[in-house]
Amino acid sequence: MVKICCIGAGYVGGPTMAMIALKCPDIEVVVVDISKPRIAAWNSDDLPIYEPGLDEVVKECKDRNLYFSTEVEKHVAEADIVFVSVNTPTKTRGLGAGKAADLTYWESAARMIADVSKSDKIVVEKSTVPVKTAEAIEKILTHNNNKGISFQILSNPEFLAEGTAMADLDKPDRVLIGGRETPAGQKAVAALKAVYAHWVPEDRIITTNLWSAELSKLAANAFLAQRISSINAMSALCESTGAEVNEVAYAVGKDSRIGPKFLNASVGFGGSCFQKDILNLVYICECNGLLEVAHYWKQVISINDYQKSRFIKRVVSSMFNTVSGKKIAVLGFAFKKDTGDTRETPAIDVCHGLLGDKALLSIYDPQVTEEQIKRDLAMNKFDWDHPQHLQPQSPTAFKQVSVVWDAYEACKDAHGICVITEWDEFKKLDYQKIYDNMQKPAFLFDGRNVLNVEEMRKIGFVVYSIGTPLDS
Ligand code: NAD
Fold this sequence. Notes:
The structure is a single chain. By secondary structure, this protein is of the alpha/beta class. It has helices at residues 13-23, 36-42, 54-61, 72-78, 104-116, 133-142, 165-170, 183-196, 210-241, 245-253, 274-287, 291-318, 346-356, 370-377, 407-411, 424-427, 431-436, 453-459, and strands at residues 2-7, 27-32, 66-69, 81-84, 121-125, 151-155, 175-179, 205-209, 327-331, 360-364, 381-382, 390-391, 401-403, 416-419, 443-446, 462-465. 42% of the residues lie in helices and 15% in strands. The strands form 4 sheets. Strands 3-2-1-4-5-6 form a 6-stranded parallel β-sheet, sandwiched between helices. The protein is globular, with a radius of gyration of 24 Å. It starts with a strand and ends in a 7-residue tail after the last strand. The protein binds nicotinamide-adenine-dinucleotide (NAD). Nicotinamide-adenine-dinucleotide binds at residues 7-13, 32-35, 38, 72, 85-88, 105, 108-109, 127-128, 158, 160, 162, 272-273. Belongs to the UDP-glucose/GDP-mannose dehydrogenase family. One of its GO terms (cellular component) is nucleus.
């Protein structure tokens, strides 16, 4: 029986390995992590991440051919294929700080693999890493390798999107495998292909050289984020000219060369990947002397920051230029619907901006806990007007924040509502009831363009929807 071990039981390692276990009953899959609470949660009925369909798959496979363990070295030593799905955040200090990927976790995993291995292994880069990382990993794995072990490194980046991870893994647009062009490299590619071939049609499994696979993941995220920044840049122009961004997006997306997806104007993109991966791309370009290319990609992030700050300014200026002492309901805190993930969510920036103007926030998200929200808001944030200064978040700000478990409760007696996450339940709320229980004039700021502006205006709300000419 082939044995797979995945290092890192996070948003990628957990769901990805659960899908492999489901589709490949002949393969034993062990997901290991240094975090004891995370593994304990995977082994409980309360999984550490919320992802539609994940519970059912884990339930079916756990203790059949899917295991979660903190015995990292033991399971790595026993595995034929080792996936590495550890976090690769942006470096916060030293060379490349603020842009380059921090490969500390990756390097420590690679050194551990080298130390504990007693048999040949295929080592798979599942984490998103800078192009050429495999070269460094090869050096770490083969350095001092006097045990005669063969390590083959493959790049197999993950393209799942949180919120639809299980569906994406079940029917991926493509599976990408990059390997060395040597016979041993190609044998390793064939072995990994055989795993995916259990359920992925052959024409959806793409094989490339290592560097193309590594770079494709960064490129894919950069292109996706670029579309969002492009429509968001248009949304600002729509507001100034009387054009409607939803109509523009529809008309533009009807062009079959462009297509309709990822053209929803919003308060901005979030999540752990887009910004980090673009910064990483920018850094790689700079390291290769490609300053114009670096500048080009940097603008995708600048527009995203601009969009968030534009939203905050719009909220404050609409509410007579101050939100001090006013209750504002924040509907949604996760970076997108159907996930509890709050990494880099625009909600953090919006809340910080409003807290800075002394608003009283009442926050509701169906999947994010109070502890998580307060932890996120406790982090230091940039002041966009003076980006060179870090603004420490005052602990007294927490007196301005309450986290509630009901949207109606959040909106009761509020002066304004900010919709930050596009949860389906926010579309189905009784907005007449909400309006009746609010201070007047009642402001509604739709940061996801999920509500019908005309209907909301008919109820009596003063509405701001991204990319829609202002309510007069
Ligand atoms: P995560 O933070 O949720 O999980 C990473 C896990 O690795 C953590 O639980 C951590 O404890 C563990 N870990 C770190 N070092 C370890 C070590 N030496 N030994 C054992 N465990 C260790 O991160 P994630 O969201 O799953 O992302 C993982 C990688 O996948 C990143 O490179 C990310 O860019 C990439 N990625 C993420 C997504 C996404 O949607 N989250 C999508 C595609 C790719």
